[in-house]
Amino acid sequence: MPPLNEGDILYMPTAPPGMSVTTASKTLQTMDAQLKQFPEVEHVFGKIGRSTSATDSAPLSMVETMISLKPKDQWRKGLSWDDLIAEMDQVLDYPGMPNIWWMPIQTRTEMLATGIRSNLGIKILGDDIQTLEKLGVEIETILQSDPRTEPYTRSAYAERLNGGYYLDFEINRDKIARYGLTIADVEETLSTAIGGHEITQIYEGRGRYAVNLRYARQFRDNLDAMSHVLLPTPNGAQIPISQVAKLTYNSGPPMLRNENMVPLTLAIIFFLLFLNHGSVIEAGIILCTIPFALTGAIWILYLLNFKLSIAVWVGLIALAGLVAEMGVLMMLYLNQYYQYCQKKQLEAPLYQVISRAAAQRIRPMLMTSLTLLLSFTPILYSDGTGADVMKRIAAPMVGGVLTTLVIILIVYPVIFSYWKDWEIKHNH
Questions:
Q1: Dihedral, CA atoms, 100, 101, 105, 110, nearest 10 degrees?
Q2: CB distance 418 to 311 below 8 Å
Q3: How far apart are CA 378 and CA 312, in angstroms?
Q4: Overall pTM surpassing 0.90 (yes/no)
Q5: Would you say 45 and 66 are in contact if contact means Cβ atoms under 8 Å apart?
Q6: For the segment 70-99, what is each residue's pLDDT rounded down to a tens digit?
Q7: φ, ψ dihedrals at 10, nearest 5°
Q8: Beta bridge partner(s), residue 232
Q9: What count of other Cβ atoms lies within 10 Å of the Cβ of residue 258?
Q10: CA atoms of 210 and 203, how far apart (whole Å)
């Protein structure tokens, strides 16, 4: 994503896995206090670990601190944005916690799209966790020591994959069957006794607070105490969990990521088109015309010297959606007119039928395309805040709308005619 000064700073140091909650909280408070000492800082709000939201799966070693800055006229004289970042980076020097300074919105966008927290990263793909972590640590060391990269590297950090600690309950199916219990019964009891179960809510004005029911801390704060969690049986007896399950501490990856789901996405789109049209051939025609319609977008990116980025991909995806939408409409109208001619038993060559059907779609296709062209062209000449991002989104749309018209109005009917001609000969 092209750089855009959002006015605030997101400070994201990363610690190796295994940091305790107490140490993490103390470190976060110290960082916030140091940042607040800078006269250019208005507010500081730090968070470490994950929140109560299921969509925020940040580990405890991940710090996210929002730094709101004062207006530029209240800064120290002669101090630039880069100078302020350099001063903060020098003051907040914690061993084993490399600093990352970036923009809040852009960081979120890049994390969602790529999974990388900084503006530059190296991805290693594979299915062996130990090998991935070993290679990552080696790359981290090389970036910080190699004379070709060391002068330009502020910080480098390889994500550790084996810093998660887990308490596993290995339930013995044969033993729980003797007591008339199921896996769900045991897991529900464990979840309630150790994790807690919400039984009601308390309202205080506009506040809403959950009431959780679970064992007292002394009955669940160590392995021996948890082994005495009682399981109710159907006959009314209660047995300790240790009689039917084995409790062990294990280590493993705190987080796993999957990528390269593009073929699956295309398969889903193809399946949806098939459900809509009821024909594999029609869905294939619509899907196959998308790459050809992107030709104009690639050319304009080349002429404007825009490199591939998240913003460019957003524009390409939007253009592909436009092509698919216009293709669905053209396919629908060609089919309707073709079936109308068959129903009326109009004696006309196939190419004339398809030409008439396509000619009646010129006006709506031109209106749709020209509306987009006239809407996005002024963006290419803008230079205000956010223009760098918007130009890269609009450029593929402007360049691709012309080739889209050619594909939909000229190439599309030709492909349709070849298909119908083959269909007629095959039926006869």
A1: -40
A2: no
A3: 17
A4: no
A5: yes
A6: 988 889 988 888 899 889 988 988 887 888
A7: -110, 115
A8: 238
A9: 7
A10: 9
- 296 token code pair: 């104009």
Phi, psi of 128 (to 5 degrees): -110, 115
**Tokens for 230?**
């009682």
Direct distance between the N- and C-terminal alpha carbons of the chain, in angstroms, rounded to an integer: 56
- SS3 of residue 249 by DSSP: strand
Contact 36, 123 (CB under 8 A): no
In 3D space, the residue among 91, 247, 222, 226 whose CA is nearest the CA of residue 172 turns out to be 247
Q: Are 97 and 89 in contact (CB under 8 A)?
A: no
In the numeric block, the tokens 């995806």 are attached to 317
Q: Which two tokens stand for residue 255?
A: 């987080």
CB 285 within 8 A of CB 195: no
Task: Quote the pLDDT of residue 36.
Answer: 92
| Closest by Cα among 334, 327, 333, 331 to 291 | 327
Q: What distance in Å separates the CA atoms of residue 104 and residue 120, rounded to the nearest whole number?
A: 15
- 8 A C-beta contact, residue 61 and residue 17: yes
38 has pLDDT over 90: yes
Please tell me what DSSP assigns to residue 109.
H
